Amino acid sequence: MTFLPAPPNSGVRFRRVDLEGRPEIEARVENVAETTRSTTLAKGNTRIHTVEHVLATFAGYGIDNAIVELDANEPPIADGSAREYCRMIQESGVVAQDARRDTYSVSAPIELEVGETVMTLFPHEGFKITCTSADRKGRFTQFYSLELSPKTWETDLAHARTFCFYEEIEYLIKNGLIKGGSLENAVIIRDDAVLTTEPLRYPEEFVRHKMLDIVGDLSLLGRPLQGHLIAVKPSHAANCELVRRVLAQMRKPLVAAQTFGPPPARDPEVTAETLCSGDGAVDIDGVMALLPHRYPFLMVDRVLKIDGNHIVAVKNVTINEPYFQGHFPGHPIMPGVLQLEAIAQVAGLVMLRRAETAGQIAYFMAAEDVKWRKPVRPGDTLVIEVELTKSRGKIGKAKGVCKVDGEVVSEADVTFMTRLA
């Protein structure tokens, strides 16, 4: 792994130098594909696992722009903490850039409850984390609170190691989640015993590592955050969901302005992620902010979910659709090519959610393996599921399926290109 400098306002990016084309993935929450035991970023077929410790290092030191080059799908685990990454930063040094640094200050409390996790983010002048961690049996319950700064990051959080409970190991091995795991890079808790090759580095090492993960995951906001986070039994899934809710709060002033004024020109800063609600949904106003299509050719009414490169949207098919006048009188059927167009529009939403394609249009280029299996009639709700399978530069490929009542009615592989209108 190599850390490289990056120009102002470019953010943190991971670059896979072992793959053709040296694909890059931006460290933003819209690229999060998996949050089981760690945070995984994905774009097309490219994936990078366990990014949170590297991201926490950059965020802890206040580094906004950097490129991380990797020749594998995961950063070196080192000793399970961020200590070795800190040494890399210390050896290279940090420089100020001639550009304004945008932060986001929480304007109102944000509450989140996911399973056993409870998180509340309050307005605060700096960035503070107050955290309680424990397993399901209440063992090794620990509490710690910290105002984050480059100094406190380096001394109070960076050395805290990954840990797991002994009874979890079989599951983790079967699911390929700890292929390189050992006592050299993790602490194992068995009953009341702590198995480690060295003494605990902090009295509260377990909760401090949870806080380390929080720092890394919250950096997926794309800018420094000002607020006081109170977290009980945090997880990667909850951390990333909190980032999405912060993004939704960032979006609220613009939504309020739109409520009392005429439709604004398309904002190049608008992405699908900033329009998402807590559950990843996007309403029709959000869809129209991203897609240029309008009546009678907008084939998406609502996005139900955006999860990494997977998106689920719906089109409500009514008898008022203008094409039913001629297709066919007395026997209305939704044209198959318009189902294909719906797949293409939803695929375009996947590409247009990225920061680098903001303000652009997705042009439909090709369709392959197109199949129409059942007719779609007025009153049906067309559920469109699309998975982005490849993204390189301005070109994207996706696999789409349309369903009615859970049955596949059409499917296709589509290719499209993004460019300025």
Please give the alpha-carbon distance between the first and last residues: 38 Å
Q: What's the overall average pLDDT, rounded?
A: 86
Under CATH at level 1, the class of the largest domain stands as Alpha Beta
Biggest β-sheet description: 6 strands, mixed
The beta-strand count equals 22
Describe the overall structure.
The chain folds into 3 domains: 2-92, Ribosomal Protein S5, domain 2 (2-Layer Sandwich); 104-249, 2-Layer Sandwich (lpxc deacetylase, domain 1); 264-420, Roll (Thiol Ester Dehydrase, Chain A), CATH 3.10.129. The chain is 24% helix and 32% strand. It is built from 9 helices and 22 strands. The strands form 5 sheets. Strands 8, 9, 10, 11, 12 and 16 form a 6-stranded mixed β-sheet that branches. A 6-stranded antiparallel β-sheet has the order 17-18-20-21-22-19, with helices on one face. α1 (52-61) packs across α5 (205-218) and α5 packs parallel to α6. The longest helix is centred in the middle third of the chain and has 24 residues, at 236-259. The two termini are 38 Å apart. Mean pLDDT is 86; it is low at 255-267.
Record the SSE blueprint:
Blueprint: E1 2-5, E2 12-16, E3 24-26, E4 32-34, E5 40-43, E6 46-48, H1 52-61, E7 66-70, H2 83-92, E8 104-105, E9 110-114, E10 117-122, E11 127-133, E12 142-147, H3 150-157, E13 163-165, H4 169-174, E14 187-190, E15 193-195, H5 205-218, E16 225-232, H6 236-259, H7 272-275, H8 284-290, E17 302-307, E18 310-316, H9 336-352, E19 360-372, E20 381-392, E21 395-404, E22 407-420
Parallel strand pairs: 2-7, 8-16, 11-16, 13-14
Antiparallel strand pairs: 1-7, 2-3, 4-5, 5-6, 9-10, 10-16, 11-12, 14-15, 17-18, 18-20, 19-22, 20-21, 21-22
Helix pairs in contact: 1-5, 5-6
